[in-house]
Amino acid sequence: MNLDVYVVIVLFVLGLLIGSFSNVLIWRLPRGENVAFPPSHCPNCNHQLGPQDLVPVVSWALLGGKCRYCKAPISARYPIIELISGFGYAAIALLFPLSSFGAGVVGLCLLFTILLVASIVDFETYTIPDELTIPGTAIGLIFGAVNGAALSPLPNFEAALRGALMGAGVLVVISLLGGWVLRRFRERLYPEVPIGYQQIALALFGGVLFGGLWGSWWAALAGGAALGVISTVINVAARRVVRVPELLTLGGSLLGLAFFSARGSLSLLTGLQGGLAAAGALSLLAGAYWWLSSSNDTAEDDDSPSDPTAMGFGDVKLAAVIGAFLGFERLLVALAVAVVAGAVLGLIQRFTGGENKLKFGPYLAIGAVVALLWGAAIIEAYQGYLGL
């Protein structure tokens, strides 16, 4: 049997097994439960499931979609998720043969699982667990660091880091500016302590300023991120919010970009890239802080008042995952596809009287799949259209 065919079969079976574990993640992560203990059990009667109950798809079919012990119905979602995972893994192995693309295929399978679980959880709860996005971003960077195959579908480390930071930066800047507009350009009523949107906005401003003046993406990232960290340290020392006016940070960022555009496209580009990267870096730092704080029961209550936002912070971190695995250019393709899909759904909801709240995570995941499969061709066609 051909090696690549063998790998397709193996990954299909592995995908079914990972799909079974994905069902555990989908159920337990939003509820704050441990994903390993207790072992798998019926949610209705709590009876621990045996090996004969855990064979992907087959167990559900043989049991007629019911619990072996209490006869309670088991949702068809479980085998559906397992099949999606199995066929997804097989498709990745088929489209990116191991003999040509190396270990990068494993990274793509992990990305597929993260996207699948995040989509289902976001669809059901309007949240995307940090347990997926923050470790997922780190895993994407690790694959970038060890990526040495010329034909690998994954970017190298520098491109993965740029994709993660600027991916998060694009989404968080949309959230910052959109929230500012929703508040009619008034200051935040509920700034986070010690780190949150104010520090991210300050990092954006510093990144734009240093990037445009110095013409260096790395210098902009370092300078902008340093401003955000210094502001965080000041908040910690003062034990309260030391306000940084958004008229300065967001308004200054927009004025800075306008100024650098007059100096030339290079200054504008480095200023924009620097601002996005610095804002993305502080977003991931803030996400990691609040995730760890929540684990230690020190985070703010989810029901506490907050300012209006234009983009969920879970979407920001999911964009970092996609950028780390696929690179910034393909992240932009994923974002474009997600926006179009969301806009179409929004119009359908408007005319059918459906709910107005949009779950953006699933569309971002769909966009990532499109970017993985056809991103290179889309980017090449777009560059050809521009004559680049």
TrEMBL record:
User: Where do the TM regions start and end?
Assistant: 6-27, 78-96, 102-121, 133-154, 160-182, 194-211, 247-266, 272-292, 331-348, 360-382
Any GO BP annotation = signal peptide processing
The record gives the membrane topology as: Multi-pass membrane protein
* UniProt-annotated location(s): Cell membrane
List, in alphabetical order, the Gene Ontology terms for molecular function in this entry. aspartic-type endopeptidase activity
Task: State whether keyword Transmembrane helix applies.
Answer: yes
Pfam families with a match to the protein in the record = A24_N_bact, Peptidase_A24
This protein's GO CC annotations? plasma membrane
Instruction: Note the superkingdom of the native organism.
Output: Bacteria
Q: Where is the Prepilin peptidase A24 N-terminal domain?
A: 13-95
According to the record, the signal peptide region is none
Q: Where is the Prepilin type IV endopeptidase peptidase domain?
A: 109-211, 243-347
Sorted keywords for this record are: Cell membrane, Membrane, Transmembrane, Transmembrane helix
Q: Which InterPro entries match?
A: Prepilin_IV_endopep_pep (IPR000045), Prepilin_pept_A24_N (IPR010627), Prepilin_peptidase/N-MTase (IPR050882)
Q: Which family does it belong to?
A: Belongs to the peptidase A24 family.
Name recorded for this polypeptide:
Prepilin peptidase
